[in-house]
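In this section we walk through a basic example: taking a raw amino acid sequence and producing a predicted 3D structure, encoded as discrete structure tokens. The instruction is simple. Fold the sequence below.
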Amino acid sequence: MGGSNPRRSRTAHVALGRADYGWTLDLQRALHGRRRTGEIADVVLTVEHNPVMTFGRSGSREHLLVPESELRREGIELFEVERGGDVTYHGPGQLVVYPIVDLRDHGRDIRRFIRCLEDAAIGTLGEVGIDAGRREGFPGVWVDARKIASIGVYVRGWVSLHGLALNVAVNPAHFAMIRPCGLSIETVSIVDLIGKTVSLDRIRDLFLAQMEAAFGWEFEPTGLAEVLGTEVVR
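The resulting token sequence is shown next.
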């Protein structure tokens, strides 16, 4: 893994736009199954979700700081999923990246895979003037003590699903409803740090370029129907 090899592999990128979490979760699982059987090649999904809280395998309901009835009033869905980690929030103003990748083609190294995702986020933030990095023992990407990107992946049969979420212009009141990743921390968005608006599409394009460098890929924009070989109903 990494960009030292001048021969870059062409990798499908599907931009889903704005989508409900449940639909995207079903899609990820379907693509994961097809990648495991070799029916499809690696594919990376990018999406902006409607408001949702998700609990990973180590998630605790104690880290949800409001009643579930308040989530329903706010139109926020709730899911328990197979990724690692605790509770997190996805919603408008956040870039979410789901790589469906066979790690047997990338050194069978899950930690390195996660570090490459973190590198892509750190490089993206650097492009807009934000000095971000890692915190020892805490996955994700940080600006000082504030978290700006979360990572939670699941690998089965050496194929990954779930991924990374980068805060571009997220509603802070929604994050205040949880203890993110089970920690008493502050979250932050790009717009909070640069003092001006920036489009999610621009951040997505910067992130994809950083992924290409980190993984040695060349992205090929691809329609979802082309990947699945069938029409898609949303």
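Looking at the output, two observations stand out. The chain has one domain: 9-228. The first strand starts at residue 9 and ends at 19. In the next section we compare this with other chains.
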